[in-house]
Design a protein that fits this description.
Blueprint (H helix, E strand, L loop, with lengths): L1 H15 L3 E2 L11 E9 L2 E6 L5 E5 L4 E4 L5 E3 L14 E6 L3 H4 L1 E9 L4 E12 L4 E11 L10 E6 L5 E6 L17 E6 L17 E6 L14 E6 L9 E4 L3 E7 L5 E6 L5 E5 L36 E3 L5 E6 L13 E5 L4 E7 L5 E8 L4 E6 L5 E5 L4 E8 L2
Parallel strand pairs: 1-20
Antiparallel strand pairs: 2-27, 3-4, 4-5, 5-6, 7-8, 8-9, 9-10, 11-12, 12-13, 13-16, 14-15, 17-18, 18-19, 19-20, 21-22, 22-23, 23-24, 25-26, 26-27
Length: about 400
């Protein structure tokens, strides 16, 4: 009897970490934290903390701001020009893993071109006083080519735990097919050196790509595509440029990218009509977009699910209906919210939510609470004292300080 009971408990433990749809999860009845608006911005996108406690806040429309914990704002001079349209614009700002010695900052943004724009990765330094701030020694390290139109740049950075490499999430820009084209960066997670070069031991170093895919829809996931239902085949012969930057492929809108405390790389992305995903990003793996999804095309045409194509990696968690994730971060430390140490937090746009995720350190994850915060949350980050700071996706959009309720 005891053995049977133990076996049953073991089965339940395994099942708790199995892949699951969390789209129907209900919000908690109350919030365990207080939300205080400190400042407002025009479509804020990302926040990063300097060692002195001040924040760097990007606005999608272009400016970058130096902000105190009290909400005092200084616009940073010498910010680059951006291609601002739809989901394109100024995106992320990130401190170098060696900031204490090199003082480097990294920016991701849509760089203007003759037609549209393209994702750019740049490095710079901040010269700041109590009343002024400007970028210096600005250099673009990597550019998405060719440029063009279409949204969803991705544009998130995660530095490897050893501080040697930079992982860059590149969205498919609603073009669909490039996510499976090995010679294009769209729909990929790239692994670069801190200078923006392909890491020397990436899985596709020295190889040229080739692929043929068939889609039920034209190659653009846009309004014009909503009425089309024909099957189209696209062949990518390979060899046009090196895919040596690519670490993993088949992503749609990778807005969240972060390393867990145990060294796993996790990504969260928007699906089409349904099918948001949380993925464990692994070397050389393909995550299937646009060939598979737990969502469907905007015109209602079904997309084969991951269950039909075992060669593609399934998401660990997916959401139908969607949460529209804004970012993913891992809470670290015993300050302020000690019960969340090692847990992930996902911000929600359409769902106006904050979601806590528990990871087992072995490739498994499950959601804990889902809190309805009443605002579209683009970003959530941890401050030096362990409190949280959130950015509201709106114009004006609030910078919100999150502290525990007494």
């Amino acid at each position: 009897m005891k053995l049977a009971k133990a076996a049953a408990l073991s089965t339940l433990a395994v099942a708790a970490w199995a892949q699951v749809n969390m789209g129907e999860q209900k919000p908690e009845a109350s919030l365990p934290f207080t939300m205080t608006t400190v400042a407002n911005f025009k479509l804020p996108w990302r926040v990063a903390f300097l060692p002195d406690g001040r924040m760097l806040v990007t606005e999608k429309v272009g400016p970058v701001w130096l902000v105190s914990a009290k909400g005092e704002k200084i616009q940073i001079e010498n910010s680059p020009a951006v291609y601002y349209q739809g989901q394109n614009g100024m995106h992320g700002i990130f401190l170098s893993p060696h900031y204490a010695t090199d003082k480097n900052l990294y920016l991701t943004y849509a760089e203007p071109g003759e037609y549209g724009g393209g994702l750019a990765l740049a490095r710079t330094k901040l010269n700041a006083t109590a009343t002024t701030a400007k970028f210096e020694n600005f250099e673009v390290l990597w550019r998405q080519m060719p440029k063009g139109k279409g949204g969803q740049e991705g544009a998130q950075i995660a530095f490897s735990p050893d501080g040697k490499f930079l992982f860059l999430a590149v969205g498919d820009r609603q073009r669909m097919t490039p996510a499976q084209d090995p010679d294009q960066p769209e729909g990929k997670v790239l692994r670069l050196t801190l200078d923006g070069k392909p890491a020397p031991d990436n899985p596709y170093t020295g190889k040229s790509g080739a692929a043929t895919i068939s889609l039920i829809d034209p190659p653009r996931d846009t309004e014009a595509a909503k009425t089309a239902k024909e099957v189209s085949t696209y062949t990518f012969p390979g060899g046009n440029q090196t895919p040596a930057e690519t670490w993993a492929s088949g992503f749609r809108t990778p807005y969240g990218l972060a390393f867990s405390p145990t060294g796993e790389l996790w990504e969260v992305e928007h699906g089409p009509a349904g099918g948001d995903e949380l993925n464990l990003v692994q070397r050389g793996k393909n995550y299937g977009w646009p060939l598979v999804s737990y969502g469907k095309n905007y015109n209602g045409v079904a997309i084969p699910s991951h269950d039909t194509r075992p060669e593609f990696v399934k998401p660990v968690i997916y959401w139908v209906p969607v949460i529209a994730p804004g970012n993913l971060m891992f809470y670290k430390g015993k300050k302020t919210f000690p019960q969340w140490d090692g847990n992930g937090l996902i911000s929600g746009l359409g769902s106006k939510s904050l979601i806590r995720v528990i990871f087992d350190g072995k490739g498994g994850a499950k959601t804990a609470e889902r809190w309805d915060v009443g605002k579209r949350i683009r970003d959530v980050e941890q401050g030096p004292d362990g409190s949280l700071w959130m950015l509201e996706d709106a114009d004006p959009g609030a910078l919100i300080h999150v502290t525990p309720k007494p």
